């Protein structure tokens, strides 16, 4: 399971505001090989984590590019995935390298082949000098991608966008409070967002989440009810893989030691 909270505000009016604030956890089997976020050896314009699982090498779950693109993926919780389905991680990687399609057109193309994949949600975004665009498509929901409204705050886990799972509602409420607190410094903002991602509180019972959990054991469903998932073999990856991530897209861009055309990338190393 995974979870993403983000605020999309393409023309913020307050000083030192951000066009995008995104906080995300990636949950996965602890023994699944992955590479922490870094510039690709094959393309120095793209920064992302990479899947190293045999047969799925090169897929990703969250990435950005120097051309102002962002792609983010979560899986859709369902009981009996198809073992022969296409790898979903390439949906992010292919978007980041694509130079012909805009974010909506790319999702439109993906939606035509949505039946070839197990359930997923895909966010594609472009941040440019004159216009910022964020789009969403989930292959277990509407057949058409959508443009997300500016100045919106969104939450996405392993159901469709803004599905009211308790952990999503709790995390989104805290996220909203933090990103609307204009007294926070940049460092304070990052720390408060990481605190949200580190929250191991269980949100049970949750009939909405449990309705999607056919085939999942009760102990695992309880573990999955937290923003930060902890179970013996599966959960929020930490320390070595640094997969709790905060992205801040500055407006206007500023120089920083971890900046990529205005992106500030922060990884939590202390989960």
UniProtKB/TrEMBL annotation:
- This protein is called Transport and Golgi organization protein 2 homolog isoform X3
Q: Name the species this protein comes from.
A: Betta splendens
Query: What is the superkingdom listed in this entry's lineage?
Result: Eukaryota
Question: Coiled coil where?
Answer: none
Instruction: List the GO cellular component terms.
Output: Golgi apparatus
GO-annotated biological processes: Golgi organization; protein secretion
Q: Which InterPro entries match?
A: TANGO2 (IPR008551)
């Amino acid at each position: 399971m995974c979870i993403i909270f983000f605020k999309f505000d393409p023309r913020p009016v307050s000083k030192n505001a951000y066009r995008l604030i995104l906080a995300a956890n990636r949950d996965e089997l602890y023994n699944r090989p992955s590479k922490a976020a870094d510039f690709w050896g094959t393309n120095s314009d793209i920064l992302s984590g990479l899947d190293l699982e045999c047969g799925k090498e090169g897929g990703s779950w969250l990435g950005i590019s120097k051309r102002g693109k962002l792609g983010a993926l979560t899986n859709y919780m369902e009981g009996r995935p198809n073992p022969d389905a296409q790898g979903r991680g390439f949906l992010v990687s292919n978007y980041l390298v694509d130079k012909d399609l805009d974010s909506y057109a790319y999702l439109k193309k993906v939606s035509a082949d949505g039946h070839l994949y197990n359930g997923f949600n895909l966010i594609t975004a472009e941040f440019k000098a004159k216009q910022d665009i964020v789009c969403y498509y989930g292959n277990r929901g509407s057949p058409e991608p959508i443009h997300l409204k500016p100045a919106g705050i969104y939450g996405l886990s392993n159901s469709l966008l803004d599905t009211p799972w308790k952990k999503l509602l709790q995390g989104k409420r805290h996220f909203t409070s933090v990103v609307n607190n204009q007294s926070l410094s940049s460092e304070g903002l990052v720390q408060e967002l990481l605190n949200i991602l580190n929250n191991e509180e269980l949100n049970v019972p949750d009939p909405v989440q449990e309705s999607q959990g056919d085939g999942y054991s009760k102990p695992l469903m309880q573990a999955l009810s937290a923003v930060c998932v902890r179970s013996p073999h599966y959960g929020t990856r930490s320390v070595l893989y640094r997969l709790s991530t905060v992205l801040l897209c500055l407006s206007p861009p500023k120089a920083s030691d971890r900046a990529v055309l205005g992106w500030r990338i922060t990884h939590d190393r202390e989960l």
